[in-house]
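Translate structure to sequence.
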């Protein structure tokens, strides 16, 4: 009899625990998969303006390249070059005169086009070189001239509206 009451008591405790867990317990939250790629940091308006801007800069860059006013030393689009009227980055590297800020960053990031990359290496101090000449940023005077030219392009393009 003692054994029966122990089994019966255990069974009652088990049923109570089961019932409490089933009906009163905390259920895990249901997880639903979504296919939203929206980055909350960027609104739809920002992404739409970026798309339009990118398309415009790409078109402008293509016009510079077609007109021989610009060459690239890396595979991406050079926004700085597009904003200042085009830059001949290959010629700048060949002449060792320095490069624009965006090209400089892209070369250090390892994004050079193969034609340029095959002539690049590092010196003993870790500085990036093109044909054994250290790659430098444009001089302060040249950067000032480019920024002035950008301002003039803006004025001229506004006058053309």
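Result:
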């Amino acid at each position: 009899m003692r054994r029966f009451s122990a089994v019966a008591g255990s069974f009652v405790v088990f049923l109570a625990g089961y019932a409490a867990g089933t009906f009163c317990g905390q259920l895990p939250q249901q997880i639903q998969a979504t296919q939203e790629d929206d980055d909350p940091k960027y609104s739809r308006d920002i992404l739409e303006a970026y798309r339009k801007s990118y398309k415009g800069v790409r078109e402008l860059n293509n016009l510079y390249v077609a007109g021989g006013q610009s060459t690239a030393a890396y595979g991406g689009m050079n926004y700085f070059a597009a904003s200042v009227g085009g830059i001949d980055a290959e010629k700048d590297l060949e002449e060792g005169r320095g490069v624009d800020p965006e090209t400089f960053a892209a070369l250090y990031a390892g994004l050079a086009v193969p034609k340029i990359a095959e002539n690049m290496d590092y010196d003993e101090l870790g500085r990036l070189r093109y044909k054994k000449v250290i790659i430098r940023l444009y001089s302060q005077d040249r950067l000032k001239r480019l920024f002035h030219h950008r301002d003039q392009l803006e004025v001229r393009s506004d006058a053309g509206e």
